[in-house]
Amino acid sequence: MALVSPIGKVKREKIWEVVGNDNVKVNNLLDDKYQPRNSYIIVKEACSMVGREMPYCIVTRNCEHFVTDLRYGKAESRQIDAKPGDLIEIDRGIYQHWAIYIGGMEVVHLTTPNGDIALETIGKVKREKIWKVVGNDRFKINNLLDDKYQPRERDIIVKEACSMVGLKMRYSIVNSNCEHFVTDLRYGIPESRQVTTAAAIGGAVVVGVGIVAIGALLASWLKDDNKEEKREERREPRREPRRHYNWQQ
């Protein structure tokens, strides 16, 4: 899903030309929240904007923002395809940041201090509006492990995510980055394909708030972890893995 599309244009057309064969209804959805402006002012301002070209952004400047701004003087949009508990993948260019959608155009995500690059630090769980987190980057709903693990109940995911807001916890690119955080909430199993991909390609550099690493270094660390696990297995029987990862330090 592209957040910022080519410049949009304000048009004046017959309603049937716009609707086509789709369903339509009158929906002054924010009348219970805001006082509508005078109808004469709304129509006059709308007509004055016909033909104007302006930036279009699905998160901050879409068609719903346009009409709510005209009616209420407040640009708001309640539409997003995500359902509570869905994972949101945000393309930062050379890495992906991850958040979990909780409804109401809000997400919960694990961040590093001031968004700084860090191999290991103390991160913080934040609850923010999705457009504040996404900015002008591209994003998509990506429940990437649904084919591998059974997702937990949506209300449980959201409740647990919200309960963690404000917590400070260990952040590591190897085993507790933003992707580990959201997959643990959705599946009860922390997993990051960014880490495994970086380790697999070796030598490739992946940089960003969500993950900062040299692939070869990751591969080395993961290899060392595997060796340590094998040593532990020789010492004592392997225990059953916990269903849910303990993030809090």
From TrEMBL:
Family: Belongs to the H-rev107 family.
Keywords assigned by UniProt, alphabetized: Hydrolase, Lipid metabolism, Membrane, Transferase, Transmembrane, Transmembrane helix
Biased composition annotated in UniProt, kind: Basic and acidic residues: 226-239
Biased composition (Basic residues): 240-249
Classification via Gene3D superfamilies: endopeptidase domain like (from Nostoc punctiforme) (3.90.1720.10)
Superkingdom classification of source: Eukaryota
Hydrolase keyword on record: yes
Region of interest (Disordered), ranges: 226-249
Transmembrane segments: 199-222
Keyword Transferase assigned: yes
PROSITE patterns with a match to the protein in the record: LRAT (PS51934)
Domain called LRAT: residue spans: 1-79, 87-194
Gene Ontology CC annotations of this record: cytoplasm
Name of this chain's protein: LRAT domain-containing protein
Record organism: Perca fluviatilis
InterPro entries hit by this protein: H-rev107_PLA/AT, LRAT_dom
UniProt-listed GO biological process terms: N-acylphosphatidylethanolamine metabolic process
MF terms (GO), sorted A to Z: N-acyltransferase activity; phospholipase A1 activity; phospholipase A2 activity
